[in-house]
C-alpha cells in the first residue's frame, strides 16, 4: 500500500458521467497502480448519460458507510457535486488545484473529491488525488463548523 493513501484501506468509490469518463479511467488506473481498490459505480462508456444516475448510488454508498472516500467526475464537476451533496453524510468538494484539495480535507473533512473532467489536465488531477488522500482533517474549530453542515443533526 502506498503511503499517500493512509486514510483508508477500503475501496475508493468512484463515479462519473460521460464527460468525466476518460479522466475516471485514468484515475482508476492510477489508484490501482498504487495498490488501491476502486468500486466503480459507472458510467462505463463515453456514451451520453445523466450524472445523477451514477452520483446517487455512489453517494448512498458513502452515506451508508460502505466506503470512507469517493471520487466523482463530470464535465464541470458541479452537477455531480450538487447531486452527491444531497446525501447528508457526503461532503463533496469541487477541486481544480492541489491546494484546494488539501484545504477541502484539512478544513472541510471532505470525503468526496470532485474533479472537473473538461477543465483539468490529467497531471493536475492526479496531484489533486494524491494531495486529497495524504491530507488529514485538522479538527479543532473546523470540526465545530463541519458539525453544523448537516440539515438534520444526529446529536
Ligand atoms: C455534460 O455535458 C455536462 O453537462 C456535465 O458533465 C456536467 O458538467 C454538469 O454539471
Kindly describe this structure.
The chain has 155 residues and is of the alpha/beta class. The protein contains 6 helices and 5 strands, in the order βαβαβαβαβαα. Strands 2-1-3-5-4 form a 5-stranded parallel β-sheet, with helices on both faces. Strand 4 (92-94), helix 4 and strand 5 (112-116) form a beta-alpha-beta unit. The N and C termini lie far apart (36 Å). 36% of the residues are buried. The mean pLDDT is 94.
- From the alpha-carbon coordinates, what is the Rg to the nearest angstrom? 14 Å
- Assembly level: single chain
Q: What would you call the shape?
A: globular
Question: Residue-averaged pLDDT, rounded?
Answer: 94
Count of beta strands: 5
* Helix content range: 25-40%
Bound molecules: D-ribose
Which structural category do the helix and sheet elements fall into?
Answer: alpha/beta
Task: Please tally the helical runs, counting DSSP H or I stretches of 4 or more residues.
Answer: 6
Largest sheet: 5 strands, parallel
The H/E string reads EHEHEHEHEHH
- Side-by-side strand order of the widest sheet: 2-1-3-5-4
Pick out the low-confidence regions: none
The separation of the N and C termini measures: 36 Å
Q: How much β-strand is present in the residues?
A: 5-15%
Amino acid at each position: 500500500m502506498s503511503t499517500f493513501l493512509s486514510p483508508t484501506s477500503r475501496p475508493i468509490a468512484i463515479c462519473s458521467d460521460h464527460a468525466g469518463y476518460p479522466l475516471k479511467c485514468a484515475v482508476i488506473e492510477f489508484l490501482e497502480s498504487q495498490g488501491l481498490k476502486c468500486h466503480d459505480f459507472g458510467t462505463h462508456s463515453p456514451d451520453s448519460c445523466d450524472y445523477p444516475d451514477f452520483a446517487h448510488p455512489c453517494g448512498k454508498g458513502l452515506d451508508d458507510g460502505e466506503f470512507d472516500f469517493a471520487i466523482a467526475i463530470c464535465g464541470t464537476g458541479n452537477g455531480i457535486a450538487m447531486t452527491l451533496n444531497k446525501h447528508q453524510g457526503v461532503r463533496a468538494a469541487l477541486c481544480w488545484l492541489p491546494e484546494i484539495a488539501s484545504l477541502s480535507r484539512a478544513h472541510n473533512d471532505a470525503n468526496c473529491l470532485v474533479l472537473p473532467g473538461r477543465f483539468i489536465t490529467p497531471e493536475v488531477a492526479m496531484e489533486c488525488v494524491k494531495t486529497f488522500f495524504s491530507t488529514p482533517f485538522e479538527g479543532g474549530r473546523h470540526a465545530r463548523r463541519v458539525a453544523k453542515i448537516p440539515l438534520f443533526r444526529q446529536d
